[in-house]
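Moderator note: this is an archived Q&A kept for reference. The question asked for a predicted structure of one protein chain; the sequence and the answer are reproduced below.
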Amino acid sequence: MLFQPKRQLGALFTRYRLLLLAVILLFSLIRVRLLDMPLERDEGEYAYAGQLLLEGIPPYQLAYNMKLPGTYAAYAAILAVFGQSVQAIHSGLLLVNVATIVLTATLGRRLYGATGGLATGASYALLSTSPSVLGFAAHATHFVALAAVAGALVLWEPERKPQWVLFAGGVLMGTAMIMKQPGAAFIAFGAVYLAWKRPRGLAAYLAGAALPLELTCLLIWRAGVFERFWFWTVSYGAQYGTLISPANGLLRLLRVLPHVIGPSVWLWVLAAVGVYRLAQTQRSFFPLAFLGFSCAAVSAGLYFRNHYFVMLLPAVSLLAGASVGAVDSQFRSTATAIFVAGMGVSIFVQRDYLFVLNPGQALERTWGESTFTEAPKIGRYFREHTSPEARIAVLGSEPEIYFYARRHSATGYIYTYGLMEPQRYAGRMQEEMIAEIEHTRPEYVVYVRSPTTWGLEKGSDDHIFTWAERYLATQYEPLKEASSPSFQTFRRKIPAAGSQSITAF
């Protein structure tokens, strides 16, 4: 039947909303249970940069990184609303996740009906909460996914939409890129889709897509940090984005993909079936193009880190929804049974993480290191034993310490990975980090022992380690009460008795 009585449609829509609400409540409660999970490195970077923004300090002044600053602004908004805490950050992620679930379900409903929409939303809720994609960490990829799905929803069926709506869709896709550069793939998706469906709307769309980057550049220029912004996001960014060869990228993908898919393999199988089913219809261009450009976003730089796949999950969820919302009633029943079983199996496989482990245990189970659970203690010590004006330095890639301490960094190098990479700026970066620390003369220095904090490679320039040993031995003294297995703390000897520093190596 193509048409159903209004009463039946109303009952179906009500049931859809109630079931979607139940899905949202279930996965929100799971996230609430882990709100206290300590920050990992990327979260520490965003939190510290957001903290600085709230103090009026622009990106790239006291915290260097190649990412565009959209996620910094998002974190600043979260911290302003909920407070400067780990719980606040993960509460913000919870809201971002809920919004993305609702938008993916809405998009799925418009493409495949209420049943398909519900399956789409439920799939995204489960997949984006999984530790296989580091789903509990507030990575930039969650913010990219939110903006991209919102943009896709606005652009769907653009034939009769006014130009300003297409402009708004472009703004949303441009926002996805500002959150993280791979989001540019979704700008390309919108452009290709409009070129196919409504070429006359392309100019308005592209004008909207350019607006977020234009405003970002203007604000960065007015803040006086455009030169450094350009170096990190363009000059160094180009080096970073070309370090991995295609062969090594393929090996990375083959190594990571089974871990990403494994816990929810039946949902991915259902998505693969959705590709096959859609390829036989005339309405396949939108979801399959969205899938293709989502894959492009994940593939940027060929690093294929687990959390990058969050940008692929909306497309995968839409394809799973396509199978469940199939027109063929017999096939739909089979797909629905596979979907429900797949959800159940996936939840069961991940039950310890979702329902049993405490926040610290869940984090260590995911990362296999204790650095992140020790960092809050180090930060708390600094906050309690230094004045708000004190400067500290962390020799390693642990920016979360600055956030916990609520103290400014003595160097903009909040990560040390770039110093070890085989790229043309590595030596210059080491010299600049050394010069900034010696000029600032921080009260405390943190030398991180964990090897993952440095990313030391064969052939890396290692003269910063020789400098660090000499500098700390002559200018600082060990501080046992602020040390830990991952961090060794040092306090400055000169010029005053109140200065302190931390080392972990």
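Archived answer notes: Confidence is low (pLDDT under 50) at residues 496-505.
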